[in-house]
């Protein structure tokens, strides 16, 4: 009943769980940027649909809705900036100037995930800004 | 081999923790250079190869059709999809003949409408999406040095389902009974259609969609769990990244359409008024559900083809891709953003300007990741030394066409401009530019590129160039003028038009161009199918590519890869010396099949560390039977006959149970085995380590998305109706509903308890829990049904009771599946398929019940509580 | 039909410069705008087209350059600059500008109307049209033709019977869908008097292709005169042939589906025919309004427009048919 773990098994026996535990933060970060975009999008669309159907009349301006969505936008952008900053740190670009991360090592995998998360944060940021533009430029539900 | 493997009873006496430890891999990993450099004894290697060949032998003669190996199923799948593309293309030609001159009467209005409906339907559902799955099944394992997909019989089942469904849908044209309300099937036109066309569309395609989701699940699990050791996420071939993203998109995009199909068919068959405005329904809900599917669908088609480009471009440039992370970002980003675009198909439905603005903005935002993708290709070509090979020519042509389609896409994403061009020939031009450039041309390039890998022969360079120039020029002659035709006011889907509107010459030019495209396809098809027996075998790596599929064997071997390599680079054939030589010698993992079983290596999700050896299924006929009965269950209701369909469905379930029982999660004869390079791995695992558990998890994500679609429907009706529920409407019995939900939760607890108790060795108590669980589930659904039945909520009277019923019906149907699983596990514990150490089925059943429990609670809340507070 | 319409001169009328000059014109062309909305959108199109052409040439020129002309290795830093500059920085700015432009246009195409309201209901496959001048209690009912005063902004209320349609006059503005059970709203401000063609843009069944109409833009006073005439009942038969025709109409039960105001025919299933003779087309933009075409239509509606609900009257005696057609043609 003795089973010996191989001594050469470099980082010890790692299962999916252990791996996920190690990269849990990065995996969150990767999805968090787009997820904030998605939540902001759904909230904007859903609130507008309900507001225009139940509260507003055709040509009347809807300042309440627009201010609310503007606040939401600022919050979403702040969230994305935070995610992007953490991802930038993880990518660790300025330390080794490595943006290719093509080696089969833990560090490269870790920094790759950071790089991808950082880039996704940029795209998500742009996405949120775009989606907020109608709130800025359109006054009524019509 | 380890100490425990001798006696399988050892492991049954262990605790859960001990079992996990006992099944942990043992031995050195990763392999050192010295280990890899050690030569193989040629005699041993030859004997190993013999055993492998025997285990993976493709059945001969008529039994060939029982094959389930990815190389056979994938090939049939590709050819079937290609055949339907040609059919749909012929329909397009017929339409172009009709439209060549004004007031033409080659086709009657009715036939024209069937033709354009089937052209769109076939191109989308019988060609584009299945082709992605077909190509991926065919080549993905090779990209990852894997032997096969994780669930080969599921691929085969999916293929046979697809074949039956698509022959049925396409065949309806021959009986002049094809669907004719457009590939988008908008109600009320489609719901009011008198023939069986709409039913054929709904049921036939639902069937195919289910098969598509099955394939997507398999592809995702394959990408996550069947990579070669060492291929971490940052080393995956880009194709695999795209498969992952697209698989994920299918899992979230198709289910809303299935939910919509369900509502639609309930209206057609049982008069539940989901889309009937007279009884509170709303035809716009269908449009939402359809396009929540329909727009991601566009990217589901586009991304895999761009993935093929991402494999060809580095080969053409003879250097690794520039901006690997950028491309991954763009694939993931596109995947997300594509779910925020659906209303741009509904810009003219009179929604509030603000709402349109959001979708306009998201539609522009999605251009950015797509642009990054294209510029990453350009950058790679800049840095490398480009050989304009035939595949690269197709890719370059594709980019030229796709960028034009992308730029018109930027235009139509501006909502106010779309007010003009929506539903005109401008859109016809735009979408064909994106789909030819984004799908058809890259795929043909891919066919030229991968042909030596697939058939071990080469296609003709000369004919390939002819085909390219014919299709490329013909395409532009056909579709470039259509932009103007649309701006001059010609709407889509018209079977004729009067003269004098400035459309005549434009249509004539388009029709001529269509025949030039057809000529190109004729050349391509001939080149693809012509006999090539006399040809000498091509070089093993004809394009000097860097990825693993080019380690394939010539002449062909069915084993996929002689041994599964250790990978620590993105382009192993360029960057890892002697890798092919060592693979061939069987130096790496799983170079043997001592037990004569088909095996593949399962690795961890992020870093691809070896986890266990999965025994995969071999040739079978049960999949054909299961597909046949499933097909009957979907096809018979088309004719509004229901009981035989239910019987067929029951037979289908019986076949699937037989198949699962006899060939999945079987207790192995040895607990661990030596897989080579000193590494010993388990042969059985349960729970999150197992591929089956991942398959269930992803399937349930898809299933829950469909359910979410139905819940969205409830909220949608609340916003679109002035009063929802209508004044004076009855409510569900709250206590019965709550009681039902509690019983469902108890059933869930029982099955979860059974798993835990079984792990602790108390099989008898586990069995009792598994007897109690179905009883509780039965009580649960009885309570929920009674809660609606007693107050007499008539689903045909108004959309509110119909919506309540559909949620409960959904829960009941899932509970039936859940009970079948519970009984399966009960039988497993009795007949020795499940014991304390081998409980994968119980884990999977529990996972299903987690989702079902949540579904039941939400159903109870939405039907029992929500209507009272709205 | 398009005789006295003037193509609007403007900075974005490169149509005039291109060989496309005749190609952009046409009674149903979005590129020959005659209304405020259509003008805004045509301008938008020309700007976007110019940008798109430049960008297409730039991207594909670059592609051609790196694959055909300078195939050798180029510096990696330059390539990465291309990804960041071409893939992110440039598109983010350009798209933001375009999006802003597009979004500011949207309210301009949805300005409320200033008096007249027209309610159009999509039928399979024709248009029921009701004019509601400001303060009117009952509408003036017509069919298959929309007349609009130029220089005024008219509210157009859209509905549908049974299936979805889409109301579209490209020369005047964008389209809006028509739904059963849900009203949608659009407004149009025609600028140039003339006759334009509109057509259903949402697939609506077998004869979707044959669901068109004429949009007649009249100077404001002419429009007022026309509306007054349209509100009047049908003129009495002008001769014995016409009188016989009216009798055939009533005897055949046409009045069960059609209204001709001033006669006992008050059906509401099919188009109102009170002034059918003054319309520019019959059969919803399908045939000219001649007695010959009317006779043809009455005898074989299903051949001309497949799937149409109107039964065919091919068993009518030729004389009766001719009389009926003559009477209808005279209903100006």
**Beta-strand fraction estimate of chain A:** under 5%
Q: Could you please say which CATH topology of the domain at 298-488 in chain B applies here? A: Cytochrome C Oxidase, Chain A
Architecture of the domain at 298-488 in chain B in CATH? Up-down Bundle
Radius of gyration of chain B: 28 Å
Uncertain residue segments of chain B = 1-6
Span of the ends, CA to CA of chain A: 75 Å
Shape of chain B: globular
By CATH reckoning, the class of the domain at 298-488 in chain B would read Mainly Alpha
Strand content of chain B: under 5%
Summarize it:
Chain A is mainly α.
Structure description:
The complex is a heterotrimer of chains A (142), B (870) and C (332). Chain A has 142 residues and is mainly α. Chain A has four helices and no strands. Chain A has one domain (24-137). Chain A has helices at 16-54, 63-91, 93-96, 106-137. The longest helix of chain A is centred in the first third of the chain and has 39 residues, at 16-54. Chain B is mainly alpha-helical and 870 residues long. Among the domains of chain B are: 3-56 and 544-617 and 664-682, no CATH class; 298-488, Cytochrome c oxidase-like, subunit I domain (Cytochrome C Oxidase, Chain A), CATH 1.20.210; 687-869, Cytochrome c oxidase, subunit III, four-helix bundle (Four Helix Bundle (Hemerythrin (Met), subunit A), Up-down Bundle). Helix content of chain B is 65%, strand content 2%. Chain B has 28 helices and four strands. In chain B, the strands form two sheets. Chain B has a two-stranded antiparallel ribbon. In chain B, strands 3-4 form a two-stranded antiparallel ribbon. In chain B, a hairpin with a 2-residue loop joins strand 3 (672-676) and strand 4 (679-682). Residues 1-6 of chain B have low confidence and may be disordered. The relative contact order of chain C is 0.11. Chain C is α+β, with helices and mostly antiparallel strands and 332 residues long. Helices cover 36% and strands 16% of the residues of chain C. In chain C, the strands form three sheets. A five-stranded mixed sheet of chain C has the order 3-2-1-5-8. In chain C, strands 4-10-9 form a three-stranded mixed sheet. Chain C has a two-stranded antiparallel ribbon with strand order 6-7. The longest helix of chain C is centred in the N-terminal third of the chain and has 34 residues, at 36-69. At the A-B interface, helix 1 and helix 4 of A face helix 2, helix 12 and helix 13 of B.
């Amino acid at each position: 009943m003795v089973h010996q773990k191989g001594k050469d098994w470099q980082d010890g026996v790692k299962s999916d769980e252990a791996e996920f535990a190690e990269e849990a933060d990065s995996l969150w970060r990767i999805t968090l940027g787009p997820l904030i975009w998605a939540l902001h999008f759904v909230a904007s669309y859903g609130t507008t649909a309900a507001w225009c159907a139940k509260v507003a009349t055709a040509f009347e301006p809807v300042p309440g809705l627009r201010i609310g969505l503007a606040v939401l936008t600022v919050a979403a952008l702040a969230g994305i900036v935070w995610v992007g900053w953490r991802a930038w740190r993880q990518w660790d670009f300025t330390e080794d100037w490595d943006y290719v991360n093509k080696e089969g090592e833990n560090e490269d995998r870790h920094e790759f995930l950071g790089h991808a998360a950082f880039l996704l944060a940029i795209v998500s940021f742009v996405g949120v800004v775009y989606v907020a533009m109608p709130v800025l430029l359109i006054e009524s539900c019509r | 081999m380890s100490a425990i493997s001798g006696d399988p009873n050892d492991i049954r006496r262990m605790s859960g923790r001990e079992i996990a430890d006992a099944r942990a891999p043992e031995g050195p990993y990763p392999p050192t250079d010295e280990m890899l450099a050690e030569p193989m004894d040629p005699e041993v290697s030859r004997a190993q190869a013999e055993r492998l060949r025997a285990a993976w032998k493709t059945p001969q003669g008529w039994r060939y059709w029982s094959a389930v190996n990815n190389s056979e199923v994938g090939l049939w799948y590709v050819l079937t999809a290609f055949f339907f593309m040609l059919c749909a293309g012929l329909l397009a030609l017929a339409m172009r003949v009709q439209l060549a001159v004004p007031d033409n009467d080659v086709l009657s209005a009715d036939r024209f409408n069937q033709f354009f409906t089937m052209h769109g339907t076939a191109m989308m559902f019988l060609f584009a999406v299945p082709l992605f799955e077909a190509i991926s099944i065919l080549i993905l394992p090779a990209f990852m040095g894997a032997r096969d997909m994780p669930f080969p019989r599921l691929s085969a089942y999916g293929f046979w389902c697809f074949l039956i469904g698509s022959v049925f849908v396409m065949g309806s044209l021959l009986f002049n009974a094809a669907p004719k309300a457009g590939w988008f099937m908008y109600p009320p036109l489609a719901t009011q259609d008198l023939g069986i066309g709409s039913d054929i569309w709904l049921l036939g395609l639902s069937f195919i969609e289910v098969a598509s989701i099955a394939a997507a699940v398999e592809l995702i699990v394959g990408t996550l769990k069947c990579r070669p050791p060492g291929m971490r996420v940052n080393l995956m071939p880009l194709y695999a990244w795209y498969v992952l993203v697209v698989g994920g998109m299918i899992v979230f995009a198709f289910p809303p359409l299935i939910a919509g199909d369900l509502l639609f068919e309930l209206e057609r068959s049982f008069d539940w008024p989901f889309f009937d405005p007279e009884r509170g329904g709303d035809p716009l809900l269908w449009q939402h559900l359809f396009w929540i599917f329909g727009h991601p669908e566009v990217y589901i088609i586009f991304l895999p083809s761009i993935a093929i480009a991402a494999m060809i471009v580095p080969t053409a440039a003879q250097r690794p891709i520039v901006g690997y992370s950028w491309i991954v970002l763009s694939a993931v980003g596109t995947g997300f953003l594509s779910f925020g675009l659906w209303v741009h198909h509904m810009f003219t439905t009179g929604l509030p300007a603000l709402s349109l603005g959001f979708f306009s903005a998201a539609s522009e935002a999605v251009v950015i990741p797509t642009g990054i993708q294209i510029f990453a290709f350009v950058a790679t070509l800049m840095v490398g030394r480009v050989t304009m090979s035939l595949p690269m020519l197709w890719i370059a042509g594709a980019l030229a066409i796709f960028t034009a389609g992308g730029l018109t896409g930027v235009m139509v994403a501006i909502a106010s401009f779309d007010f003009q061009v929506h539903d005109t020939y401008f859109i016809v031009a735009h979408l064909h530019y994106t789909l030819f450039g984004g799908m058809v041309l890259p795929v043909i390039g891919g066919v030229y590129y991968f042909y030596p890998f697939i058939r071990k022969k080469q296609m003709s360079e000369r004919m390939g160039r002819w085909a390219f120039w014919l299709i490329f020029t013909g395409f532009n002659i056909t579709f470039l003028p259509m932009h103007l035709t649309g701006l001059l006011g010609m709407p889509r889907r018209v079977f004729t038009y009067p003269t004098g509107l400035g459309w005549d010459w434009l249509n004539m030019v388009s029709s001529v161009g269509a025949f030039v495209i057809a000529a190109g396809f004729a050349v391509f098809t001939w080149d693809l199918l012509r006999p090539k027996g006399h040809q000498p075998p091509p070089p093993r790596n004809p394009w000097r590519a860097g990825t693993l599929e080019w380690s394939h064997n010539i002449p062909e071997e069915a084993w996929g890869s002689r041994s599964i390599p250790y990978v620590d680079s993105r382009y192993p054939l360029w960057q890892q010396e002697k890798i092919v030589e060592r693979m061939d010698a069987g130096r790496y993992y799983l170079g043997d099949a001592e037990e004569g079983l088909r095996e593949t290596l399962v690795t961890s999700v992020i870093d691809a560390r070896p986890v266990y050896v999965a025994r995969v299924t071999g040739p079978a006929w049960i999949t054909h039977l299961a597909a046949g009965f499933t097909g009957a269950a979907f096809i018979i209701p088309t004719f509004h006959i229901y009981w035989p369909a239910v019987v067929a469905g029951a037979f289908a379930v019986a076949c699937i149970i037989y198949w699962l029982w006899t060939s999945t999660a079987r207790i192995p004869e040895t607990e661990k085995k030596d897989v080579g390079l000193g590494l010993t791995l388990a042969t059985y695992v349960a729970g999150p380590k197992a591929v089956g558990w991942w398959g269930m998890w992803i399937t349930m994500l898809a299933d829950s998305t469909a359910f979410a679609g139905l819940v969205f429907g409830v909220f949608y009706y609340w916003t679109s109706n002035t009063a929802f529920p209508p004044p004076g409407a009855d409510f569900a019995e709250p206590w019965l509903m709550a009681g039902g939900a509690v019983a469902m939760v108890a059933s869930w607890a029982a099955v979860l308890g059974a798993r835990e108790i079984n792990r602790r060795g108390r099989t008898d108590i586990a069995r009792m829990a598994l007897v109690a669980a179905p009883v509780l589930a039965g009580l649960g659904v009885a309570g929920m049904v009674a809660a609606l039945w007693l107050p007499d909520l008539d689903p045909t009277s108004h959309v509110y009771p119909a919506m309540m019923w559909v949620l409960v019906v959904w829960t009941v149907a899932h509970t039936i599946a859940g009970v079948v699983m519970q009984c399966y596990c009960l039988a497993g514990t009795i007949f020795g398929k499940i014991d304390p150490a081998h409980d994968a089925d119980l884990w999977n059943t529990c996972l299903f019940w987690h989702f079902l429990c949540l579904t039941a609670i939400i159903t109870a809340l939405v039907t029992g509580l929500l209507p009272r507070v709205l | 039909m398009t005789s006295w319409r003037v193509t609007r001169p403007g900075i974005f009328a490169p149509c005039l410069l291109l060989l496309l000059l005749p190609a952009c014109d046409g009674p149903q062309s979005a590129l020959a705008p005659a209304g405020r909305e259509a003008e805004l959108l045509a301008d938008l199109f020309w700007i976007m087209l110019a940008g798109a052409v430049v960008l297409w040439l730039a991207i594909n020129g670059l592609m051609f350059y790196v694959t055909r002309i300078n195939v050798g290795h180029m510096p990696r830093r330059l390539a990465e600059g291309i990804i960041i500059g071409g893939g992110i920085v440039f598109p983010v700015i350009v798209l933001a500008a375009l999006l802003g432009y597009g979004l500011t246009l949207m309210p301009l195409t949805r300005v409320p109307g200033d008096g007249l309201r027209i309610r159009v209901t999509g039928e399979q496959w024709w248009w029921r049209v009701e004019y509601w001048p400001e303060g009117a209690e009952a509408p003036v009912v017509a069919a298959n033709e929309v007349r609009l005063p130029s220089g005024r902004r008219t509210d157009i209320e859209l509905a549908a019977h049974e299936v979805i349609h889409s109301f579209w006059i490209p020369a005047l503005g964008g389209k809006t869908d028509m739904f059963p059970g849900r009203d949608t709203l659009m407004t149009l401000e025609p600028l140039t008097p003339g006759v334009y063609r509109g057509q259903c843009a949402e697939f609506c069944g077998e004869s979707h292709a044959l669901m068109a109409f004429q949009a007649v833009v009249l100077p404001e006073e002419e429009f007022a005169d026309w509306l007054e005439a349209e509100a009047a009942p049908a003129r009495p038969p002008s001769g014995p042939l016409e009188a016989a025709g009216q009798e055939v109409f009533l005897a055949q039960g046409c009045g069960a589906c059609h209204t001709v105001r001033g006669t006992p025919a008050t059906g509401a299933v099919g188009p109102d025919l009170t002034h059918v003779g003054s319309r520019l087309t019959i059969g919803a933009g399908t045939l000219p309004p001649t007695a010959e075409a009317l006779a043809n239509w009455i005898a074989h509606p299903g051949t001309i427009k497949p799937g149409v609900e109107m039964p065919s009257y091919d068993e009518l005696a030729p004389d009766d048919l001719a009389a009926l057609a003559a009477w209808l043609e005279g209903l100006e």
